[in-house]
DNA sequence: GATTAATTTAAACAAACGTTTAGTTTTGCA
DNA sequence: TGCAAAACTAAACGTTTGTTTAAATTAATC
């Protein structure tokens, strides 16, 4: 009886709002973006925010819920496909780097939200979406420990913090990064050259950090 | 002729505003804190913001300029006092950890500002205050390379990013950290226990990352 | 103690904010 | 084609925003 009549072949206003919100909130912060600015950038009437999401905050929450990357599935695929523990760690680094560089303004926004003492429900939403990923990574590190390749005395949690921290520091603060690297254009942090460099650094550092000294001696006997 | 008459023995209104601004802006973000809320928290009349700083933004800028830690001097003292390259790196890690944990809401604010595409002048102000520090750290790493203790093929800039990234990730997002560590109280990230743990992790990781394999063999011949 | 400048106050300012309204257009199905 | 639900619009809503005002208070100098 109350069947909603759906338009066909129409620019999706709702989707346009979500997309624009992700971009602008990421660039400027939630409070700094007015509903008028947002609606104009999305080429949509202001009232559509209330129509589809109830409020500006509703739009924010919906954006987090719907656009949050389903990374845990990809992580579990790594578990099946890749070889030894290091290959899995290596694949995790690649996966996260691609994800975060691929949608950097969303990730800026998400991690800025975690640094704020506003909107605890949003923080909870984000954290519950992330924490499953940690568990998968932990099992990979433990796997390497059990096979004897990785050191026994690794601080697994803080190692995870180092991988994410390195990536976020460089991707979420492009102005910091280009200053550190002596580059001119902020687009550099999205380049393939930088991606390759960052992957190499992270993997080199993690190799040295995770593998036992015995493993290195075994692998490079005549260097 | 235009000698300003200064009050004596008065609660410093100006200082109170700077202190409160640092706290509230760090916790909630610049735009999310209203002048009324700020003035009330500082127990000061709203008009005092314009009186001392011209505007809310003027207060923000003055806060960055005046409260920005003069770390480079401490870093140079390390250069004089400590022994070999590793001792200096180790001292740098200690120094930064103490600084950042000691005034975490200010550092939250500073690095949040770097992730935003608002107020480029503020970004410039912050970056020019930081970049001198990088140079000092770079010389320490190069020192270790020249003495033959550190690897030759280290990505020095991204290594700096890893150290800062790890610290900021953990300190600027306490909710993320306690979730990762399975702790209950956010105050844990300010505890001595956590400080010790983080120092150990960073130094372990950096040792493995920086030192040559030859160095480890030399140091631990019978393990 | 009078004077003058520095500081503080409460009240008011216009502009911008998020949201709502009431009405119009578009759509899908009969 | 007619009609009701859905989608959209322009205008207005009451608040809150950052800032200013003009007057009152406090402090330092003579």
Detailed description of the structure:
The structure is a homodimer of 223-residue chains. Chain A has 223 residues and is an all-alpha fold. Helix content of chain A is 73%, strand content 0%. In chain A, helix 1 (13-28) packs across helix 4 (56-67). Chain A is elongated. Chain A binds a DNA duplex (30 and 30 nucleotides) through helix 3.
| Oligomeric composition of the shown chains | homodimer
Residue share in β-strands of chain A: under 5%
Order of helices and strands of chain A: HHHHHHHHHHHH
Give the helix level of chain A as a range of percent: over 70%
Instruction: Tell me the overall shape of chain A.
Output: elongated
The main pleated sheet of chain A reads as: none
Number of β-strand runs of chain A: 0
Structural class of chain A: mainly alpha
Task: Considering the chains and any ligands shown, give keywords for the structure.
223 residues; 73% helix; homodimer; disordered N terminus; elongated; mainly alpha; DNA-binding
Write the layout of secondary structure elements.
The structure is a homodimer of 223-residue chains.
Chain A: H1 13-28, H2 35-42, H3 47-53, H4 56-67, H5 71-81, H6 85-102, H7 104-115, H8 120-146, H9 156-172, H10 174-181, H11 192-210, H12 213-219
The structure holds a DNA duplex (30 and 30 nucleotides).
In short:
The first copy, chain A, is mainly α and 223 residues long. The first copy, chain A, is 73% helix and 0% strand.
């Amino acid at each position: 009886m109350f069947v909603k009549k759906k338009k066909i072949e129409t620019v999706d206003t709702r989707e346009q709002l979500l997309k624009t919100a992700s971009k602008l909130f990421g660039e400027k912060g939630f409070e700094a973006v007015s509903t008028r600015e947002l609606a104009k950038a999305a080429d949509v009437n202001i009232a559509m925010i209330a129509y589809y999401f109830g409020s500006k905050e509703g739009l924010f929450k919906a954006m987090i819920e719907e656009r949050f990357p389903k990374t845990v599935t990809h992580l579990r695929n790594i578990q099946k496909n890749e070889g030894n523990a290091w290959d899995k760690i290596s694949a995790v680094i690649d996966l996260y780097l691609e994800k975060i560089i691929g949608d950097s303004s969303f990730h800026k926004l998400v991690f800025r939200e975690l640094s704020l003492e506003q909107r605890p429900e949003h923080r909870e939403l984000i954290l519950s979406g992330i924490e499953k990923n940690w568990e998968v990574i932990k099992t990979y590190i433990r796997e390497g420990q059990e096979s004897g390749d990785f050191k026994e005395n690794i601080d697994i949690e803080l190692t995870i913090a180092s991988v994410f921290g390195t990536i976020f520091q460089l991707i979420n603060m492009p102005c910091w990064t280009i200053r550190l690297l002596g580059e001119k254009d902020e687009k550099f942090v999205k380049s393939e050259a930088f991606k390759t460099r960052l992957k190499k650094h992270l993997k080199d550092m993690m190799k040295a950090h995770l593998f036992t000294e015995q493993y290195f001696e075994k692998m490079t006997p005549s260097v």
